[in-house]
Structures are given as C-alpha cells and as structure tokens.
C-alpha cells in the first residue's frame, strides 16, 4: 500500500479484496494499458481476469451469486483499477449501475433472470439516457415507447453509450406517455426498459442498431456508441420494476451511486499522476540537481498530494453515507465535483513536471492527460453537480425569517 489515500476502518475482507485488486492492476493492467490505449484495443484479457476475480458481481447480493459487498468496497476497487487504466473502470461502471438499478427497483422475476448471470459477467450491462440533443437535461428525452398489447414499441436515437457494443443488456430511458395524461411532468412519464441484445455492432436485434464506435480523444479501449431504435419491440415484463412512469427516478438513483464511482476514478487517475510526477522529479536533473530539489517543483508535489488526499477522503465519505442507508446526493455531488476537478489539476501538474517528455506518447502521463477530461463530463458535468449541491444546501439551510 502507498502512503497516500489510506482508508481507516476497513474490515479484513475489504483489505484482502483491495490487495488482490491492486496486485492485479500492477501485474496485468499497468504494463499493457498505454499500448492497448494507443491501439484503441478492447482489453479482453483484463476483462476475463476481472471476471475471475468476481468483480462484475462485487455488489450483487450473495443470494444471486455475487459477493454482496458495500459501495465503499466497490469504490475503493474502482480507485485501484483507474490507477491502472481508467477505461477498465468504465467497463465495470455501467454494468455496476444496471445491476444496482435491478437490485433496487427490479421485479423478483427480473432479479432472478438477470442478476446471477450479471454476477459472473456473462450478462454485461450498459445504460442509456443521453441523446444527440441532450445530456444534462434528461427531462427533454424524445425517444418514445408506445404500448401495443403485451409489448411496447420503441423508437428514437440514443447517444454516448459506454459499453454500447460489448454489453448484452441495456437499461434504456424513454418517454412513455400512456396512462400519463398530456401535461404530466416529464419526470413522471419516463420508463426504463431492460433491452437484451447480442454484443457487437450493426443490427444486434430486430429494430435495434449499434452503428459503431465513436472515435474519442481518450477513454479508449472501452467502446462508446450510439443506439438506434426503429420499431424495437420489448415485452411488458421488461419494464424495470413492472410499472411505467418511474424510469427517471430509477435512473437518477443509479447515477447517484455512479457519481461516487466517477469520484473514485478521479482519485485513482490522480494517484497515478502523482506517482509518475514524484518519480520523474527525482530522476530529471536541471541546474545541477534533481528537479525535485527545486522548491517550485516540491510545492507542486505538495499540492498534488494534498489534492489526492482530499478527494479520497470525500469519496470515502460519500460511499460510507450511502452504505449507512442515508441520502447521499449532496456528498456524492461534492465528491464527484471535487475529485474530477482535482484529478484534472494533478494530471496537468504531473504533465508539467515531465517537461517536453510529457508530450511524448512514450510517457504514460500523455495518456492520463487525455483521459482526465472525461471525468469532468460523465455522470453529470461540474455545472450539474453544482446545481445539485446548491439546491441541497438551500434545503438544509432554509431561511427561517
Ligand atoms: C465518453 C463519454 C461516455 C458517456 N457515457 C454515457 C453513458 O454510458 N450513458 C449515457 O446516458 N450518457 C453517457 N455520456 C453522456 C454524458 O452523460 C453527457 O455528455 C453529459 O451528461 C453532458 O451532456 P451533454 O454532452 O449533452 O452536454 P450539455 O447538456 O449540452 O451541456 C453543455 C454545457 O452546458 C452546461 N450546462 C447545461 N445545462 C446547464 C445549466 N442548466 N446551467 C449551467 N450550465 C449548464 C454543461 O455543464 C456543459 O458545460 C457519456 C459521455 C461521454 C463523453
């Protein structure tokens, strides 16, 4: 274990899981991450290893074949994995959100049908809210489901599905107006459908097309796609929770735990950037001494390490709050906001410490520099986090005049 980002009060089991994951990251992820990332190659061997470790079922209850671990254990594992390669944590994240939504909101039949196969990683989850015309404003969704007997017919276009190609189960949020008269608030006329499909690209099920991978600046290896529904027929028993009109709340619940996860990713990437910076600073000499001996560089390292510690503490706090059964939207929003901003700053400082070499693809920091910005956007931008934080503060500190 490194000196930074320690977590007090972990159980023996948590410590054992984390040490196994860290070992896996050091041996199986870090040595290959940059090469695979440059080739934009799906890390199949790593994913197989994670399946063997049981990571796809980490938070799935034991009765469904998972490890039944807490959000904190999960977030600390994500932090370790992101330290190795952020894209790998992205492969697990959407799966985790869909499994969480099923556990919290699914019917018994849906849990029995999906969770055991999700725990082994045989069924792999993705979730889809965003569309070409919207991301932050989920209430503006235009994709639509119309009931036709025992089925629903879905039409519309979705955007930015992490794991859109590799997944076999997509939780899709669409508008469904039946039973919800004209004028119903948008939040009350949305439904989450559990859409099973073949992995891959092209027509993966009648009426459902995954066109291909979106070419991205970073966050490579993991596939990010569009999803096109054209007369897609889904049986009524694949409405999450069995009743329409609850989709918005189900997705927001999923995204809330997802925010702790994104914070954890920010912590992991920042830790790696610090490790790279502090190591390089002791090897590179200028003006007759290692640059680490120049006070300006030491100050940079001090700021970076302080940010790593602060982000880790907030992320752990948000996870523990959720695990205790309390509402954690304020803490999750703050942790996501702070960890992603700090991550970008720590990565930039490590990049500066590398001088010109930081710009070379031979150095790992170049990859981190392209990966960090994704955390500013995913699971809600900084502005959206601040809106959530601000609203909650006004609830808590209501003026009693
Ligand atoms: C690599 C990647 C993977 C993704 N994976 C998924 C996924 O798996 N599933 C999924 O559903 N989505 C996914 N997304 C989409 C992501 O959630 C959205 O991109 C994000 O929510 C922002 O939405 P937008 O891109 O439409 O930006 P917009 O909503 O158009 O926002 C543009 C800018 O305006 C600001 N803004 C918007 N509204 C306000 C306001 N009211 N006040 C102040 N500022 C505001 C935003 O903060 C931002 O700076 C992914 C995105 C990326 C890049």
Automatic annotation (TrEMBL):
Boundaries of every Acyl-CoA dehydrogenase/oxidase C-terminal domain copy: 245-394
Cofactor section: FAD
Pfam short name (any one): Acyl-CoA_dh_N
Start and end residues of each Acyl-CoA oxidase/dehydrogenase middle domain: 126-230
Keywords: FAD, Flavoprotein, Oxidoreductase
InterPro entries to which the protein is assigned, alphabetical: Acyl-CoA_Oxase/DH_mid-dom, Acyl-CoA_Oxase/DH_mid-dom_sf, AcylCo_DH-like_C, AcylCo_DH/oxidase_C, AcylCoA_DH/ox_N, AcylCoA_DH/ox_N_sf, AcylCoA_DH/oxidase_NM_dom_sf
Protein name (Swiss-Prot/TrEMBL): Acyl-CoA dehydrogenase
Organism encoding this protein: Streptomyces lasiicapitis
Organism classification: Bacteria, Bacillati, Actinomycetota, Actinomycetes, Kitasatosporales
